[in-house]
From TrEMBL:
UniProt organism field: Actinoalloteichus hoggarensis
Recorded family membership: Belongs to the AHA1 family.
Superkingdom of this protein's organism: Bacteria
InterPro entries reported in the protein's UniProt record: ASHA1/2-like_C, START-like_dom_sf
Xref: Pfam families: AHSA1
Disordered, as annotated region: 1-20
All residue ranges annotated as the Activator of Hsp90 ATPase homologue 1/2-like C-terminal domain in the record: 36-145
Protein name as catalogued: Activator of Hsp90 ATPase homologue 1/2-like C-terminal domain-containing protein
Amino acid sequence: MSDIVDQVNQTQREVGTGRIPAGEGHTVLLRRHYAADPEDVWDACTDADRIGRWFLPITGDLRLGGHYQLQGNAGGTILRCEPPQLLTVTWVFGDDPTEEDVTEVEVRLTPAPEGGTLFELRHTAVVDELRWAQYGPGAVGVGWDLTVIGLHLHLSGQVIEDPAAWESSPEARELAAASSLAWGAAFQASGATAEEAAIAAENTTAFYAPDSDTTP
């Protein structure tokens, strides 16, 4: 990736609220344009082999009602599957989750007027308010930024030899630092004070990019 800031700026971010079975939660929304058509983007997001090329290896019963597991990451149940436009899954860490640990991720694909695909990813979770104050939306938003950029690289034909290793590379750490600042701005736009947004961005940067000199 030649221009980290440009890649971060390609994504629009919104912070809001939403309801899932666990209760009223916070939402992060990422919106990005891909040059590929919706069918190709859908295939990249639902085919096990392709998912492993830009995200993580995945196993499970990849159909409506089935269970999936991303290697070393989240697993869950496929709640809605309407190709090539809508995918909703539960997103759960751990083997013995509580009700509040069960969050939801929705991916929506729409043909873009200029061609290609408008990609939207919304993650809704009931979050401990102390943790929300400490990290804000960047706690999950930065990870999703890395993911949607990984998808961009894959769709544009750039091979990621080891997606997991790439996420710990200096380039990815620089991206994470820029992303945390962008999520701080989205947090403030949603109603947080400038001080609250700055604290959350600083804490998120320190978590994802501890070697970075970037400060909010």
